[in-house]
Amino acid sequence: MNVRPPSDPLITNPTLAVLGFKRQLIYHLHFWAFVAIAPLILIQWQEEHRLLSVLLILFCLNALLVIACLRFRDTYFLQGRLFPLLAMVAAAYSTSINGHTGLYWAYPAATALFFLLPLGEAIVSNLVFLTVMAVVSYHTFPESEFWRIAVSLGLTCVFAMVFAWLVGKLQQELTRLATTDPLTGCLNRSQLADILNSQIQMRERYERVSSLVLLDLDHFKTLNDRWGHQTGDRVLKELAVRLRKRLRDTDQLFRIGGEEFMLVLPETRERDADTLAQQLLTSISSQPFLDDIKVTASASVAEVSQGETWSVWLNRADQALYQAKSQGRNQVVDARRPSQGGSGTPTSTPG
Ligand SMILES: Nc1nc2c(ncn2[C@@H]2O[C@H](COP(=O)(O)OP(=O)(O)OP(=O)(O)O)[C@@H](O)[C@H]2O)c(=O)[nH]1
């Protein structure tokens, strides 16, 4: 898991907000576990439980390393795998030699697993842990107590699992809500910079070329005025469906303004993006929306160029779209390259 911390306290990217939450959780679990466990090293050492003391020393060292890596290197040391392993082994061993005083630690250990490991891994680890604890308890405590321990520890695991599962689902749902446009289901602007930047990196590192298409409905204000805002909304919804039908799984569709959409097309040269844009404009103009509303759109195409930033790339596409509008609409204009002077290249107008 990448746990790069958000440097800006006013985060606008939902993915970064979730990473920030996970980072805090990992940080606090390790910090407070360290505070609670460190004194026990001395106590167990004085009681001549050397092996347990060594396990606790390893646990505390791991906690310190995780905290230091998060703080100074923005990485998650060994992906948090050592905490659950050491906590489970130490709790089981401590129960076998200390009885109840060791058993108490099994409860926080079982709970912590669900917040540190991916859910599937946490469930498997906890099943192993429960089995080990059941065997140890069976040999350490009277039978009546063994059942109480098995059921109460099992119930603790179920509660923690349900809670962690729901928090995970809530995170996913909130991220989805924050990254998509509720009307059309397209991506909104929140991840625009990240996604364009990732295409730029593909260009810089692997010479893989992506293009973007901006598409804007023509005279949408007139449509709204004539048919009403709700009908306008339904047209936008239908437009998103038509666009999505024509795209590949790897393409991404954004709604970046009222009636303006952006398509990010990985591994696509300007020529092919232009062909696609032409086909999209034809599919919009040739078939009326909601059965009898005729609509046209204008589009621009821009292939990413060496060394440009996402905002320059988008700005080139914007200029070309402006040109398509000013030249009469219902047409595609290819953006001029940074090295080229003059204006963009108009391509054919759909029939
Ligand atoms: N129905 C609906 N209308 C919207 C929404 N968002 C923005 N609009 C409207 O879209 C219209 C955009 O108008 P303009 O920017 O003038 O663009 P246009 O009329 O399409 O003109 P050109 O782009 O120059 O062809 C405005 O009337 C906005 O109110 C929306 O979510 N639903």
UniProtKB/TrEMBL annotation:
Main EC class of this protein? transferase
Cleaved signal peptide residues: none
Which residues belong to any copy of the GGDEF domain? Answer: 208-337
Q: Write out the ranges of the annotated region (Disordered).
A: 325-351
**GO MF annotation terms:** diguanylate cyclase activity
Enzyme Commission number(s) of this protein: 2.7.7.65
Membrane-spanning regions, if any? 25-45, 51-70, 82-107, 113-134, 146-167
Q: Which UniProt keywords apply?
A: Membrane, Nucleotidyltransferase, Transferase, Transmembrane, Transmembrane helix
* Keyword Nucleotidyltransferase in annotation: yes
* Pfam families tied to this protein: GGDEF
> Could you tell me which InterPro entries the record lists for this protein?
Diguanylate_Cyclase, GGDEF_dom, Nucleotide_cyclase, Rev_trsase/Diguanyl_cyclase
List, alphabetically, the Gene3D superfamilies matched.
Answer: 3.30.70.270
Catalytic reaction list: 2 GTP = 3',3'-c-di-GMP + 2 diphosphate
Q: Which NCBIfam families does the UniProt entry name for this protein?
A: GGDEF
Q: Know the name of this protein?
A: diguanylate cyclase
Species assigned in the record:
Marinobacter qingdaonensis
Q: What is the lineage of its organism?
A: Bacteria, Pseudomonadati, Pseudomonadota, Gammaproteobacteria, Pseudomonadales
